[in-house]
Amino acid sequence: MSLFAIMVSTILVNNYIFARFLGICPFLGVSNKMETATGMGLAVTFVTTLASIITYIIQRNILDTLGLEYLQTIVFILVIASLVQFVELALKKISPGLYSAMGVFLPLITTNCMVLGVAILNIQEGFTLVQTATNAVGASLGFFLALILIAALREKMDIADIPEALAGFPITLIAAGLMSIAFSGFAGLV
Amino acid sequence: MKISTIFKNGIIKENPVLVQLIGMCSVLAITNTVENSLAMSAAVIAVLLLSNIVISSIRKLIPSKIRIPIFIVIIATFVTMVEMFMEAYAVDLYRSLGIFIPLIVVNCLILARAESFASKNGVFISAMDGLAMGLGYSIAIIALGTVREIFGSGSFLGMSLFGENFQAAAVFVSPAGAFILLGIIIGIFNVTIKNKATN
Fold first, then answer.
1. B163-192 per-position pLDDT tens digit
2. Residues of B with CB below 8 A from A171's CB?
3. Is B23's CB within 8 Å of A124's CB?
4. What is the number of structural domains in chain B?
5. Do A73 and B79 touch (CB under 8 A)?
């Protein structure tokens, strides 16, 4: 698959939120304000890309050569958890500005299933290193797009008159469903 | 704490899916059929029960600074065991659940119970909590799976219900249907069961 096709596919056609259901927790949890959504989007893009590249190298060079494929889940989640800690420490030291923009979201990313999901899918699809990096960037941009769209919608919904039973999460889920229908219009693009 | 309170909390008051909204990825993704919902329920209950038992029994040995990585390794071990077990004995289910089996590791529900319950309570009571939370999760995803399969494919557990002329509403098995239906189910849960339980 060409890199452009991977990019379009992960951002629009197979958007990780709307079509593959990965990363729903932060999608619902931090999408109430535009500002927090942007911070989370940035942090996820950074960590997912880095984690995909590192887990790919570990899988191909260590797990595959030693025949330890069954340790994939344990190794990947440990790599991601320590990577998140490391990125947090490094950012604090190197770039306090960037740290204040996305620092609080970093600890939350360990349990964002998109990071682990993308890392595992890269291996399952048999991507090369360049394709892996492209897929990770595309997946995170798709996540970013979904997060910003729903955050913009939720800011408007705060002042709308919504039935009491549906206020809060239920109406957000229904809005996400309608958005998912819109995104399914991209099917067949790639 | 009484066992009945634990079960009431897990199933109604703090239902992981309908009230706390955690672990949503698998809830939305695998509930397209009842069979998948049942398999996922069994996998989550097994991991939750085992990890709660192990974590509560070694809770006094775990240094508090590195407790989260330790919890994650314990959970990942059980998830790998469940994954290998399913691959060996139920290959079809293993294929249809796909990536969502390894992703049980990052299901916030399991880590949340380890952190907030099993690391502070005894073995028996933690096992009960794992069972109660697992049941709450299962009831929600089986309900969602039932509605989605009946309307989306016109069948229940693979058995056709309405004959050949039934026009299934494909939107219910699509991702969009999952989001909308879960929103409606949570809304109904809010006005009926939850309000009664809290009053």
1. 777 777 878 888 888 899 999 988 888 888
2. 183
3. no
4. 1
5. yes
